Amino acid sequence: MDLSAQLIKGKVDWKGRTAQKDKHGGTRASVLILGAFLFDSMATMALAVNLITYFTEVMHYDISDAANQLTNFMGTSYILTILVATLADTYIGRFRSVLMAISVEFLGLGLLALQAHYPKLKPPLCNIYDPSTHCVQVSGGNAALLFVALYMVAFGSGGVKAALPSHMADQFDDRDDKEAKEKSSYFNWLLLALCIGGAISLTLIVWIQDHRGWDWGFTISTVSIFFAIIVFAFGLPHYRIHVVNGSSALIEIAQVYVAAVRNRKLQLPEDSTQLHESEIDKEAAIQADFLPHTNAFSFLDKAAIHASSEEEPQKPSPWKLCTVTQVENAKILLNMVPIFCCTIIMTLCLAQLQTFSIQQGVTMDTNITKHIQIPPASLPMIPITFLVIIIPVYDRIIVPFLRKLTGIPTGITYLQRVGVGLILSSLSMAVAAIVEVKRKQVARDHNMLDEIPILQPPIPISVFWLSFQYFIFGIADMFTYVGLLEFFYHQVPRDLKSISSCFLWTSMSLGYFFSTILVKIVNKATEDITRSGGWLAGNNINRNHVNLFYWLLSLMSLLNFFVYLFVAKRYKYREETHESTTENASHDLHKEYSN
Q1: d(CA 213, CA 493)
Q2: pLDDT tens figures, 405-417
Q3: Which residue among 88, 89, 420, 590 is buried most deeply as judged by most CB within 10 Å?
């Protein structure tokens, strides 16, 4: 057998030798990556929902402040994916990026476990919901320890999201039909690993945190991350490792804007062929993703103007002169910005299900049977369960039906999918407002508006009333987030596909940060017209006005939907990646995760 046919171009083994198809990558290596991802999901997903309880009951933050701390944590975790993706593609490689990220995550969880165990490192025990007590909020060195540990976890979690799926994709060769099919299949398993790890985290670890103590919960998460490191590192001799090329697509986009500003006083040539393009790109125009010049956003074209100067070096700085292909890449992203902005509010709504909805659940009857209870932080299991059921139904029944009606392989276009999710998120917030009115009415009827959670009996209304809003948002999640992944992957040029998932993570990050800002604005605007000092102020959620906040979000989402319709209607798909040319949308979605 010809050895050269078995070598994988652009991939090396752990010793720097060209990777071989029969020795590196494939199924064997991917199983280890899946195991690491499962352990990572198991360790961290509980933080996304139960951390607000830790902030309120252990660190003694007010409910609204605790919600803001959680959304800041989540926003930081998602925004850091851009940093890690850039480091991975440009300097240190994907394998090292994943190993670095989970190691930092391990140290952060270890510090959280240490702080939760020793009383001197946290405030004295106190019931934050009891208005007769004065609880001391964490401060000083203990607060510093808390946030250092927490944001180490955020960095690690973001790093895993950015680099691990891409590293898994490196184990398959798209030029090999068999491996290309295996790649698609294994990204189904990646999603399954996420769901299994999340299910364990949202049930077992949340239960341990609530019933055995936070130190035990954080310790188990730390042990889980340790297993993730061991499993991931064990596969090193079997991995195909991507060779870094010293450049990043994001850096090249940044260079366009810097060069356009620096060349702003130069005149654009009448003939666009005079703009700079490398000879290599011109010669490889058929094989590479060479982009011709367009007239849109012409101010960016100045980045490709040759400066007429005798002192100009033979090879000008890339921050002074860019190629036409670079400029066109920047234009494509700029064209997508309005769509991107309209999806931010989706995560703003999601943030409320991870914060205020959990606090609602604390006051409600959590009994499933006489002897079995569901912790409020385990409520996100509801949308996960719904998604596990709904996704196969949508993929196997609804999509084929819609395909016959529309002639589009994906059933409906990417932007139509996103639009369905956006309107459903508005409906979810409206339902959340109605359920909150119902919950408070039951509390009022039983004279329990001032009942103290944990110390006194819960309001006699089942926590499963909250499942309606989770169910609707779960469907919205499937449409919008999956639609966005497909949209970003298919619309960005080839050079940006390896980081296209970061656009979704960035949208989610901004949603979390805007949630923090919105909560503060709402409390400030309503502090003089409510007894509680703001719609969301104080620790008695029965006296707050969360229902009005939900109505506000529902209205904002509805208005955003109409803006989205205006923007989406005017968006022009790239011809070479339009849905009508897509043979297998599902496969391409998994490639999005992979790259």
Answers
A1: 49
A2: 888 777 888 899 8
A3: 88
